[in-house]
Each structure stands twice: as structure tokens, then as C-alpha cells.
Amino acid sequence: MPITPTKKIWMNGELVDWDDATIHILNPTLHYGWGVFEGIRAYATPEGPAIFRLTDHIRRLFRSAKIYLLEPDFTVEEIIAATKETVRVNELDACYIRPLMYLGYGEMGLNPLPSRTHVAIAVWPWGAYLGDEAIAAGCRAITSNWQHIDQNSIPPTGKGTGQYVNSSLAKVMALKAGYDEAILLNPAGKVVQGSGENIFVVQGRTVVTPPIQDGLLEGITRDSAMQIARDLGYEVLERSLVRTDLYHADEAFFTGTAAEIVPIAEVDDRKVGAGGRGPVTKDIQSTFHRATLREESRYKDWAELTRE
Ligand code: PMP
User: Fold this and answer.
1) Which ligand 1 atom sits nearest the alpha carbon of residue 57?
2) What is the pTM of this model?
3) 251: number of CA atoms within 13 Å, CB side?
4) From the CB of residue 275, how many other CB atoms can be counted at a distance below 10 Å?
């Protein structure tokens, strides 16, 4: 997806011009992938841009930082304020937000500890990650032959920059084979998640998603979808899934900040249910959509306004 430049990027407490937000070629994060990041969306509402579950995203950023022993000079509250400020100064109604913690220039080698932790926040307009059509028609997914990273290799509960080579290998394989998205399995053969999304299946009125212990990122859209599904009267279970559970499900869908809620029409060339967007997915998806726009009073707290 091409990036559309905006005006300013927040770097270590200062707003710098988009083109000046650069790092040195010998920055160690570029070489060894030791960094953490977040992906957040702001939605256009009548009260101005509202950032969806901003506090939860920034808390997760700091949890990821803890895993990687990164020690930013800023607090959670300061990064929340800086994120709102970055959205404001760029004068966007809706955007994608990318906070990043990375190592400073000056040291090289596999020990990241002597390096300072830097923080940057960039925002730019971004459309539907899996395409506008997929929101209604669903996407085609394939089980990847790249195994998902596990707790004993690279901790999947953090959002470390380096771990995304695993996601990208799976994504590229899926795209080259003619599919829209990859589904990764853990070393035990359990379904973990898409390359950048959590996964759900629907059986009757029961909505099932794999548990954190199976090695997935604790997605904020996942959490929102689980709460919405419960509130809509569905039974919600966190239970391990194997590949054939996807084939036999009535419905399946992905959740993620970039993708939002996208039905899975096919897995490994097998139709899931009727092979499009099922009624339960549609129900959860439309409530989620209204929640992002602050149109659902019970979820109004989720979307944080940026105006001062
Ligand atoms: N899994 C992976 C691997 C991801 O990269 C993402 C996107 N952050 C998700 C799940 C979904 O998480 P969230 O809903 O918090 O964006």
C-alpha cells in the first residue's frame, strides 16, 4: 500500500517535517529488527477525528517495549498526548497511526542494551487493508507453509518489528499463490492468526477465536469483536482451532486495525459456509463499524477524540 505523505512526524518530542524524519543507515534496528510498534486508526466523526482505543494501543506498545527491554524517555500518557497532537497538526479527519520505538544510532552489534530508545509517531491516510470489496464479499485465505513463531523463538505477544518477517514471508507466499491472506499455524498445528489479523470462526450462534496461549497477538480489534459478539447475544469462546475447523465453520472472519473486520470466504480453496459474508459476521462487523464512528453509545469510550 503506497504511503501518502502528510506534514509532520513526531520524533522524540519534536514535530519534524515529513521529509526530515530520517535515520542513519547504520541504525541497529534496521539491521537486527529490534524495535516495537503499533498500528492504530483514527476515524472521522462529527466531533472531529476519534482514535480507536488509543490508550489500549499505547499500553500494548509499552508492554511490547518491556519484552524487548526498550526504555523510552516518555510515559504512556505522554505518548497518548503526542499521538493526538500528531493527528491534530496533520489536519486529517481519518488516518492510520504508526508509533514506533527503535534504537538510536551509535552502537552496532547484537546487544541492544547500550542503545538509546527513540520514539516516532507518523500518521497518513489509509484505506481498507484487504480492499474495499473484501469488507462485503470476503477474502480468500490459504494456510501458510511458513510456521508461526512461538514463545520459545520470538515472543508473539509483543509487536516487535523483527517478528514481522514471519508474517511477511507468509503474506508473500499467499499473494504469489493468488490468495489475499495467509493463515499461520503454530508448531503444534493450531491455527494462530492471519499475517496481520486475528481470526474467528462462527458455528451456529457460537463465535470462537484461538486463545492467547496458542501464540497470537492480543488484538484490540479481537477484543472489541469479542465484546460486541457477547453484547449481541452470541456465545464467545477462546478455544484452539485446527485447520479443518476453518473448513467446517459456518462463517469465519479476520480482525485487525488495518483490515478492520473482514469475512473469510474461502480457506485453502474450500468455501467457508456459503462462501461470502455470513449473517453473524455482518452483525459484528456493522456494530464494530458504528463503534469506530462513535455511533454506539455503549462503546463511546473506545474512540478517543483528538480535539483539545
Ligand atoms: N495479529 C497480528 C500478527 C497483527 O499484526 C495484528 C495487527 N496489529 C493483529 C493480529 C490485530 O491486532 P489489532 O486488532 O490490535 O490491530
Assistant:
1) 15
2) 0.97
3) 22
4) 15
